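Collaborator request, handled under Task 6.
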Amino acid sequence: MSDKDVKGSLGANEKFEARNWKKIGENEFKKQHPVQKSRYLAYESPPKEISQARETVAKRLLDNKKQFRKDNPPVPQEVFIEKEKHEKLIGQLKAAEARNRLRIMRLRYQANKTQEINHLIACQPTALKAVRLQALVPARHEAVSTYDTLDKINRNRVESLLEDTRGLSTNRTA
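C-alpha cells returned to the collaborator:
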C-alpha cells in the first residue's frame, strides 16, 4: 500500500489516527515487557474519561485565551513606539552613567597612585635618592604629543644630519 492509497482513503475532514492493527489478549498483554506494553498502549485509543478530560482541558484553555484577549486589548502602535523610545533613552542614560562611574574610578586610581609615589619620594633618606626616584618614577604620566613640533628650518637641519653617513657635519676635529 503506497502513501497515495493511505492519503486517498481518508475523507476531507478525517484525521489520520494511529492504531494497533493487531489485537492481543489480556493475558498476552500482561506477559509483555513494560517497554512493549507502553508501545502497544501508545497506539490504543484512550479510555472515555481521559478523552473527556482532554476535551475539557482544551475547552478551558480556549476559554482562558478568549478571556485574556477580551481583558487585554492589543496595544496601539503609538504607545508601542513611545515605549521603545523610552527604553532606548533609559539605555542611553544607563550607558552614560556607567561611563561616568568608570571615569571617576580612573581618576581616583590615578590620584591615589600619584599620592603614593609622592609619599615614596618624600620618604627617601637623601635628596639625591629622592631626585633619582622622581626621575625614574614620575608621579603623573605626561601625555606625549604625537604632532610634529619641528618647523621647516629645523626639519631640514635634522634631515641633513640623518643623511650624513660619513659624519662630516658632526665630527669635531681639532
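The cover message to the collaborator said: "DSSP finds seven helices and no strands in the chain. Helices lie at 3-9, 26-31, 34-42, 48-71, 77-122, 127-136, 152-163. Please let us know whether this matches your experimental observations."
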